[in-house]
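Incident review: delayed structure delivery

Summary: a single-chain prediction request sat in the queue longer than the usual turnaround. Root cause was a stuck worker, restarted by the on-call engineer. No data loss occurred. The affected request and its eventual output are reproduced below so the record is complete for anyone auditing the incident later.

Affected input:
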Amino acid sequence: MRIPALVLLFGALLARAEEHTLTLRQAIELATRQNPDLALARLEEVKARAAVRAARDPFLPRVTVGSGLAYSNGFPMSIEGAAPSVVQAAAQQYLFNRPQSYQVAQAKEDARGAAIAVAGKRDEVAFRSVSFYLDAERAARIGALVRKSIENQQAILDAVRAQVGEGRALPLAEKQAALNLARARQLAEDLDDDRATAETALAMALGFPAEDRVHTVAEDRPAPPLPPSEEGAIQAAVESNPELRQIESQIASKQLELRGEKAARLPRADLVAQYGMLAKFNNYTEYFSHFQRNNGEIGVAFQLPVFRPGVRAQMAESEADLSHLKVELANARNRLSSDLQQSFRAVRKAETAAEVARLDLEVVREQLSVYLAQSQEGRLGLSQVEQARLSENDKWIAFYDAQYALERARWNVLRLTGALTDSVR
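Output delivered after worker restart:
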């Protein structure tokens, strides 16, 4: 009974799986809308904005209304500090509280840092989606070439077997041809697995279930635009990179926290007010010469901290954290500059490799044209022509690899400069 149930469950999972066919631009736009990691970052931003309102709350009037009605026997005693009353109302509000004011400013800075983190996560998610998309597209395109190569390898194996049967070739040649065919089939299987892995990872990056698959679209898209100059790109990245801006926001937040700790020694003033409507049946008149049913007061409560031994330790801890963040900022700037310089070198290197692969492919294709002409004239055998076709397929694979390496390198430059998502809008 268990096996049919498992089969039905597996079938239900497969039935829910969907396949999506998207262009690269569509994949990036979809990732920036519904990626789970980006959604979590946006929720953190919402929490940070709510923290601003929570920190500002003590500066707004807090009013409580209730009742302290009770029966009195003997001297009218207080209930929670107030006389027994039919209706009680109390209000309190911060008038001057520098530590709390710095907490409000710190919460605002944390909210700004959370917004910067969302922008950084957006670029990270977009680049990850681009990488998965390129991996899936490469596996699909090269897989088609390898399957074509398998047909050529099979034709070579058949020709060699015929030659071995006729005594015009050694058995070793047949084994070598069979080995080449097996290797081509193994490569095709590996590429199919790579494609499935990349398409599943891309689906998850776009916010789809793990059972879904995202297929790429064969398109001639323009190369990602690069900044006009390397020096300008580095300068712009140092000024606007989300990681650096987030660390700068953390430094500003820590400075506000330190100023708030220093302000703990300052006096504070609170606005206080309360109202009470006393009950007539309480025995106030027996102990007081005058009874007034409606009573109220309003005033300002002052507090002056005299002895706060833990403030100095808190300040020392905050100063150490602040120094740590400043060192981290300097390291991040150096790392960003180094990564950008390396990424531009990688682009130049990939451009050279792509040009070499293109020229190599042109030479092999020209050579194949010569071999085909010689084969039609009867001056060249079929196996040599098929070997030339295999060589052409290999050069196509090398050409596509070089093209994808170049495109990935250019996308990486845009990621480091923070212009990746803007480039696809």
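Verification: Confidence is low (pLDDT under 50) at residues 6-15.
Action items: add queue-age alerting; document worker restart procedure.
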